[in-house]
């Protein structure tokens, strides 16, 4: 409703100038229409970057960039949409172009580093981060530095960067989950369990952290599900994860029981768990 009123006012102003006569009437109308179009385009871009299908957003921004490649906001929209569409290898060259534009910011170079990391180019990502002045101390910078340190197995640096990143955001669940996974890969299962549980205190719906928490507990032979909010489907999935962890630990009987419970718990047919259970029983029989 407010948008409609704004359009009416803009057009009304232009027509009023025209009616009052004589000074570049057509130019004034064109200017007013252009302002309305900018408002419409801005709203559409916001929608494309948030709720639109990622592939539709990519198509929209590709077309927009082709029409006006000098617009850095449209280039950013394309790069961001490609990341949302899980196409980091295509996003990286777009971010590289953005990073060299006159209006580029340090955050744009971080966008490039992030895309390179997602595409598996760890050295390239580290090179881009090194181009950012050390006094740029943001959540995004420290999260990326932590991931780079992880990849280089520089555990002390990684822990320091993760801790700093977690303190620089009001929504630390994601970085705490990443830190926990780092601990998990190092074999620090108790440390990982603590971090995953901490992540869930900030975002109780983060299923990745629930699954990782279950893995960390299973690695310690804790075969009870963690006490966290979960749906029936999530419960079945976590039982499946715990069952596989038990089998990996050599606790086959426990694993079979957990997989059976996973199949029985799921409200639909739980094909993955059913196949794992059938394979386990076949191996035991043989």
Automatic annotation (TrEMBL):
The keyword Signal applies. Residues 1-19 form the signal peptide. InterPro entries: TPR-like_helical_dom_sf. Keywords: Signal. Gene3D superfamilies: Tetratricopeptide repeat domain. This is Tetratricopeptide repeat protein. It comes from Palleronia pontilimi.
